[in-house]
TrEMBL record:
Protein known as: ChrR-like cupin domain-containing protein
Cited InterPro entries: ChrR-like_cupin_dom (IPR025979), RmlC-like_jellyroll (IPR014710), RmlC_Cupin_sf (IPR011051)
SUPFAM superfamilies xref list: RmlC-like cupins
Organism domain of life: Bacteria
Any Pfam family the entry gives: Cupin_7
Organism encoding this protein: Streptomyces sulfonofaciens
Domain ChrR-like cupin: 30-109
Amino acid sequence: MAKPEHEFFPARTVEFTRCEGTVDSLVERILARDPGTGVATRILHMPPGTDTTPNGVQVHDFWEEVYIIEGSFTDTRLGRTFSAGDFACRPPGMEHGPWTTEEGVTTFEVRYPA
């Protein structure tokens, strides 16, 4: 199965849902997903004060591209803060995170198979 076909629609009409893991404040809007592969396009939101340390370092078996729409977060492992307008392209197996955010952050992400 592939991602569903969508013509333009207001992304805000898609409800935020809690992400997997132990951080209750971490939420996502899934805009399109292939249920067979888990490949997805989403908006991720971390409200002010979110700390994803309990989820640990993330590693995926898929490509992940991330664009920060607004706000900022700090990668605690790298000791670096990334802000609106910053972009990442992560190949399968690349370690990233965990993150903390004082002001909150919203990202646009696309995930696809290796």
